[in-house]
Amino acid sequence: MRFHVLTIFPGMFDSPFAEGVVHRGIDAGLIELHVHDIRDYTHDRHRSTDDYTFGGGPGMLMKPEPLFEGVESIRAKHDTPENAPVILLTPQGERLKQPLVEKFAGEDDLILICGRYEGFDERVRENLATHEISIGDYVLNGGEAAAIVLVEAVARLVPGVVGSDESTRNDSFTTGVLQHPQYTRPADFRGMTVPKVLLSGDHARIEQWRRRASLRRTLQRRPDLLEDAELSREDREFLDSLKEEGHQ
Ligand code: 6GU
Known about the structure:
Blueprint: E1 2-7, H1 21-27, E2 32-37, E3 50-52, E4 60-62, H2 64-78, E5 86-95, H3 98-105, E6 109-114, H4 122-127, E7 131-134, H5 144-155, H6 165-169, E8 188-189, E9 192-193, H7 203-221, H8 233-245
Parallel strand pairs: 1-2, 1-6, 5-6, 5-7
Antiparallel strand pairs: 3-4, 8-9
Helix pairs in contact: 3-5, 7-8
This protein binds 6-chloroguanine (6GU).
């Protein structure tokens, strides 16, 4: 899978992918990350990527020409399919969630455009981008950090990048409920002990304990997730019993 990033700060993509899972995926040839400097697609002496807004007002906008040229150059150079997603990272975008991450992971190429300044010329939105994505309800200085988040979230779903398939299949958000509490050795750390059931070797009881702990935690922290989660009749009965007790 290939990620193509357009940014005015290409250096921001060096250290996040210099180690860790994505780095290994790149080394193994499973992922390619191509970072392009938007300034390379400007033609004026100052290599400007932004300009004033028509109609007046403060703030600068990203100019359309270098972004269109950048995407066209990526398409030509890397022979990407004409319908490869062109994703604008912007706080106005759709909130990134796991189902969309999974959809992106099914693509061969993703083209990411990182916004800076006050925004984009509207023609970039209407005629270049296929998606507008935000990573949450807070303000960043630009789309670079958001693009790094998106690349990491998508890259780990590329087969072979994360060690065993098991570890991505059991993630919170993939399963629809939050991860249950987990413990490793020692069983007694400074008097803080591991729940006995986990030491019992009784796999059926352990599974039930884990499922219930996941459901309890999800009800407490992210009740919104339960609306879309796949729940068995037993799950629902357990959640109902928690609600009757008043969330214990
Ligand atoms: Cl994609 N860009 C900016 N500038 N701020 C954000 C964001 C993106 N997602 C959340 N906040």
